Each structure stands twice: as structure tokens, then as C-alpha cells.
Amino acid sequence: MINVRIANPVVKGLVEWVLAIGLAVILFFVLRMFLFRVAHVSGFSMAPTLSDGDRVILNRAAVVFGTTRAGDIVAFPYPNNPSEYYIKRVIGVAGDEIDLVSGIFYVNGEPLQDAFSHDTVWSTGNVTFPVTVEEGRVFVLGDNRNSSKDSRYITVGTISNSDILGRVLVRVWPMDALGQVD
Description:
The chain has 182 residues and is of the alpha+beta class.
């Protein structure tokens, strides 16, 4: 550690402020890079859970140090344009078999039970069902199943766990909807 004596109290106070602000900025960028990231929701593919214009905080540590599970809402880069990202819900993990029969999704032979989508799915995509999720990958769907580009489409497909930017932790905007996202 550098030990410098500054006699002038004004200069000393200024140096302390500059160091404190510098440390805060560095800490902010480290946290943003490795632990949290703010994401903007664009579109209605996750309605009713998330809406166009919502802002959410992604927990990066949850995917780096944890396991992605069915039901998690995750963000990942869109494969055809990595500068864009998608936010979708994981419905299948490695080894799961996903099928779509008569507008109903099945996971390992059981109808997908969730509180978000009660409509019959008419948007089947262009992948061939059933799909078995490969090791290290997940199958994702938007909660608005009839208006979502997700793993049903070859352009998205299953998502590599290493491509997941983070798990949605909380909604921070709009303020009247502030809180945990399930």
C-alpha cells in the first residue's frame, strides 16, 4: 500500500473522494460483468410474465455457478444476431424429450403444466418433434407460445448452457411491477 502524507486538508479530502469514486466505479463494472446485468424486454413473447419495455436484472452468477432448471427464465444471444438477446423460459434440460402433439407440449411424456400458457399452441415452428435435449443444452419457449421465436425454430434451436447470459432475477421497470419474476 502506498502511504502518502498530504498536509492540505482540502487536497486530502479531494484525493479521498477521487479514490472512493474510482473504487465504486471499478466495483460497479466488476459486479456488472460477473454477477448482474440489466436487460430490456422487447416484444410480447414472454407475456403475461414480462411485457414490452420491462427492465429486468439478470443474475449471471446463478448460471455460472449454478444449474439451469426447467422453469427458469433466461437470457441468451439470438444465434443469427448475437448483439440481440432473447429472454425465454426453460422447459427442458439435458436428457428431456420435448414433444408437441395436437397443440400441447409434452416433457418426458407428461403434458407441460404451467401457469402462463393455457392456449392450444398453433405455432409449431419448423423443428421435427420429438426433440431430445442434448447434454449441456436447454429447450426454451416464450410464455406467449403462439407469438414467440424459440426452440421450436431452427434459427434458435436448443440453447447451450454456456450461451446463457443470466437468469432473470427481478423486474425493476416499470416501478409498479417491481419485484421477483416467476
